[in-house]
Design a protein that fits this description.
The structure holds 2 protein chains of 2 kinds. In chain A, 46% of the residues lie in helices and 20% in strands. By secondary structure, chain A is an alpha/beta fold. The relative contact order of chain B is 0.10. Classes of the chains: A alpha/beta, B alpha+beta.
Amino acid sequence: MRTLGISLSGLIALSLALVAPPAHAQQDEGGFGLDLSGSDSAQSETPDTQDAASEEEEVQPGGIGLDLSGETSSPELLPRLVLLGLDTPERAGAAVASRWLRMLYGAARSNGQWVLSAPLKEVRQRLGGGYKAALRCSEPSCLAEPADQLEADLVVTARLALEDAGWTLRLWTYDRDRNKVEVDAVTGRNPRDAKFQKAGAELLAERLKALARPRAVLKVNVNVPQAVVRLGERTLGVGGVEARVSPGEQNLIVEADEFTPYAKTITLPPGEKTTVEVYLESAGPAPDSPSEVVAEATRKSEGPSAPSILRRPALYTAVVGLLTVGAGVVVGMQAKEIADRAPDADGNGIADITRRERIDGQSKANLSTALMVGGAAAVGGSVAWLVLVPTHSEPPKAAPSVASGGASGGTTGLHLVLGGSF
Amino acid sequence: MRALYLRSPLLLCAVLFGVASGCAIDFPDELPYSCETDEDCGGTGHICTTLPDTRRYCCLPEPELCNQIDDDCDAVVDNLPTGPCATSAE
């Protein structure tokens, strides 16, 4: 078995030795393939005969292909870098633009500190008509939007132009976290000069190393699905969210209608995931109700209780009926009192009340009868409504109350129902 | 169980009907009613008539007949000018 292992190692080494030279050649033609050289000096020896305007689109970021730099840990937490391109106002600069771009992409390619996220062609497609404005932008105000569109944490735009001090490469690096643009420049006598190009690439690499910070991942769990989660001035999403954010102290705000907002300053360590549990409390009158769902459930559980029966018209018609019966009884008692005095107590052959009293008494008796009959009908109908309607809509309710009275069956149920009715 | 619910309002109605029945009032229609003035007789043509023994009662005047009743409510029974009662009165 050991013999077999040695043979395999030798075979792999031989394969790498055979693969390396053609890979170098491919890189010179466009940046594809393996780059095992570790140096870009060979490029300076290649004569530049390309037209910048036509070749610029073919330039691809150096991140494409196998990166053997050695640092490949947690790429999702690395800052995303986008190189917008190189602006070349002069024709002489445009002629060497592709060479410069290769150098810049070589300096900006993905490594253990950042990820070069989009090739130039994709950048152009995603920015559309705003690409040229973004390429010539040197202010945070006009670089913030492209950074958002490209989901980039660092955006670099470059310009190679003939200035007073000679040929100058200017680099504008937009730091999305700080909303700030860092400006770097290097000058040279000839844009074809390999040292000038290398200096520009090193300048970019140094700037990126200084600005690149690992991202933090913030996960927010919130009990209200419609809650809006914001970190600083950035809206992360609605409900539970997980997002790559800039590390450091940030102000987390979670808010939703009818709930008390949550605000807290949190520290997000770079390269780490932070989870925040947010529990929004209802802003309604019940301070203990934890959420709208619970409050709704509470309201539902209170539905069939006393306030509900107070809203039933039958209750009030029953009360009115009882009052009517009571009035009938009072009037009837007055009529009865008159009738009790009517008989000839002294035996003189004449009733002891006047005829007028007799007429009034008869009227009161009739009124009493009408009041009592009407009131009794109203009470009876109302009670029937109160009793029969719940029986149809909530039949299970009777069963538990009967069962709670004991196991004596129908007799116990009769007592419970009658006691409740009267 | 539903039958019990149906019984309860019927039972309540029965109780109320019984209460109402207990309130039945009977006035003595066979006796005349006392009075002090005509107003005590409640109108409708009744007048307060004073009998010779000072008793007063409400009377509805009608033509006097020979029937041993003071039909015309003048406190005199069968005071007719002619006929058997007139004869007997004389």
